[in-house]
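Cast an eye over my tokenised protein here and flag anything odd:

===
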Amino acid sequence: MAKHYPMIAVEGQDGTGKTTLRKGLFRLFEGLYGVTPLAVLTTNYLNAAVAEDLVDGKYRPAAANRERYLAALAADKQATAARLIIPSLPVRPVIADRWLLSELGFFAVKHDQPPKDTYSTLARSIGVVPDLTLVLDISAKASMERAASRPGDATRPDWDVLEVQNRVREVYRTVTDSPAAFPALGPLARIDAAQDRATVLRDAWRALDEHGLLADLPQEGSR
């Protein structure tokens, strides 16, 4: 069956507004096209065999578990693509709250691995490429202030610090400045996340339109 709907990845540092944008896109697709998107996360724990390695590598990153964590991520993303994303695309958009770019940043900062090495393992395993990756960009200081203002215990003392977030942002910018070297990210659109929410959503929707991802979407009742 031909793919009618796009897969959209929303990337950016903590506090850049990824969840807000995902929810905004969700509502637009529902309101304008009468279709409910599927939302997925960077890790979905769909491969039970690697769940322990996923937790260990994310929360206790070390040289000893780096390769196991990378293999676990590849297996989990492969399962997510095969069981959720690919079957959904003929009938609904898929919006991923983080997907591949964030993994390149995490491994560069917490596992001291160059983005190209992380990319080479994940890209050949995932089996699906986003039709567009939206990258929300804002200064590390501003992203941390936003993240700290969220309710609940949403920050991590080993991650939500200025030095770390500056490094994460630099990885994101370096990777997105060289899109030809990372084709599995799909087309990229960088959006100024310092703007108000409505403007960020407008820019994201405009980027979808400019990449030809809206014009041919079927209307409700025509599928």
Q: What stands out?
A: The chain has a mean pLDDT of 91. The chain is about 50% helix and 10% strand.
